[in-house]
Design goal:
alpha+beta, Glutaredoxin, five-stranded mixed beta sheet, binds FE2/S2 (inorganic) cluster
Length: about 110
Amino acid sequence: MALDLPVVFKYHVFACHTKRPPGHPRGSCMENGAQPLWDRLAQKLDAKQLADVSMTVSGCLGFCRAGPLMVVYPEGIWYHPEKPEDIDEIIQSHFVEGTPVERLIIVPQR
Ligand code: FES
């Protein structure tokens, strides 16, 4: 049965903020350098006043070794940004222009 529900956000981003101790066998997104990326994401979304894009601080998304990881809905696109400029590109291309950034997309593997 299809539901006819209103769209709350055009894009909803979940950014993994999990931090495990150095050397932990699972690793973690924060150990892999996520903090400056998520700081940039929050700052840029706020500065651009993209009210239809929501960022949620998430716990582990389950693919720790591939981190830093963020996943964007409704498409379910997983991004692995590596530097702050990647965040700028995702915001402009995906969230403003509607074109996902293919070079930063990954398909996470367990
Ligand atoms: S720690 Fe980020 S996906 Fe697990």
